[in-house]
Amino acid sequence: MTVPILAIVIPCYNEEDCIDRTTKRLIEVLNELEKNNDISEKSFIFFVNDGSQDKSWELIEKYNKETNGKVKGIKFSRNFGNQKAILAGLLESYKYDADCFITLDADLQQDENKIKEFVDKYKKGTQIVCGIRNDRKTDGFFKKFTALTFYKFMNLLGVHIKINHSDYRLISREIVSVLQTFPETNLFLRGIFNELGFKKDYVYFDVKERFAGHTKFTPFSLFTLAINGITSFSIIPLRFVTVIGFLMSFISIIIGIHSYIMKLIGNCEAPGWPTLAVTIGIIGGVQILCIGIIGEYIGQLFQEVKARPRYIVEKELG
Ligand code: UDP
Ligand code: MG
Fold first, then answer.
1. What angle do CA 302, 307, 311 make, to 5 degrees?
2. Could you list which residues have their CB under 5 Å from ion ligand 2?
3. Does residue 38 contact residue 5 with C-beta atoms inside 8 Å?
4. What is the pLDDT of residue 277?
5. Is residue 114 domain-shared with residue 175, that is, in the same domain?
6. In terms of CB atoms within 10 Å, which of 24, 105, 155, 265 comes out highest?
7. Residues 118 and 209 in one domain
8. How far apart are the CA of 182 and the centre of ligand 2, in A?
């Protein structure tokens, strides 16, 4: 096997405090691997500036010049979100002939010393190498709890994603070309890579504390990511709506028959209003929940049907 060209793809949203240290450290890692002939000297870092309002892009430009193109990048016209930034990084860096691609966060929370392990697995013929976090020590209780619930729920829906999966992963050039055939707007990359097949392996890594800046995810953006993940991979929630509707109708018919028989045998008491109120409340709640679930899928369809570009590249540095 010839020595592979590695592209390190990094999504960035307001990461001016991280870019310096991250770039220097990753160049060190690349140099080390190049020196040992693990990867080609044409390997590079590819930043995706996801609509940062700070100096992130200026820093990327500076490093692009200083390193003679070892640091490359694109600039989105606005913020499109982390999943689209990762996707764009893979699709747009493809033209620089990389053989394999690693996606990594700009804050280097994911252990960069494991890059060699990813590359070694790739060299053994693995097409997708997924990074799995050893633990969630750096997450607060809320994030830990919601993440675990999400993975359990996805497993229940038949989408078997490993718990503690992350977006730290290596994929081969062939996988990126497969990814080019996925036109969907709402992407949940962890789900997609899980479904592709191909030879897969895992690398376990420790998560460090963020060395600068703060998390760019809000509870709302995490919730959106989770809903996207569910609605783009499973229609079981829609089946749940059908089953609930069926059950509710069945129960109503039984209650109706029961009341009629009670009336016939003259044992008809005036039902208490609290029972009635609670029943109406529950039925109303379930109906709204069901409309909400259907609405989520209609929302997905709405976005997919419009088929707008998933991201807009304003500038490019090769
Ligand atoms: N990110 C992005 N666009 C966004 C939000 C985040 O490109 O809208 C990037 C961010 O700059 C970082 C990565 O995605 O490189 C992961 O974000 P962060 O470290 O804030 O997430 P956490 O580690 O807290 O889950
Ligand atoms: Mg982080």
1. 115
2. 105, 107, 109
3. no
4. 74
5. yes
6. 105
7. yes
8. 27
Residue nearest to ligand 1 atom 11, measured at CA: 12
User: 79: Cβ below 6 Å to ligand 1?
Assistant: yes
Q: Are residues 191 and 79 in the same domain?
A: yes
Residue 174 lies inside a defined structural domain of this protein: yes
CA of 165 from ligand 2 middle (Å) equals 14
Does residue 269 sit in the same domain as residue 178? no
CATH number of the CATH domain containing 39: 3.90.550.10
Q: Are residues 186 and 277 in the same domain?
A: no
**Residues 197 and 252 occupy one common structural domain:** no
Q: What angle do CA 173, 180, 156 make, to 5 degrees?
A: 95
Question: Measured between alpha carbons, how far is residue 304 from residues 150, 182, 237, 308, 316 in Å?
Answer: 23, 12, 19, 8, 27
Distance from the alpha carbon of residue 9 to the mean position of ligand 1, in angstroms: 13
pLDDT tens for residues 237-278? 888 888 888 788 888 888 878 878 887 887 766 666 667 777
> What total of structural domains would you count in the chain?
2
Beta carbon of 107 within 6 Å of any ligand 1 atom: yes
Instruction: Tell me the CA–centroid distance for residue 109 and ligand 2, in Å.
Output: 6
Is the pLDDT confidence value at 92 over 90? yes
In a shared domain, residues 202 and 241 = no
* Structural domain harbouring 265: 236-306
pLDDT band at 159 (very low <50, low <70, confident <90, very high): confident
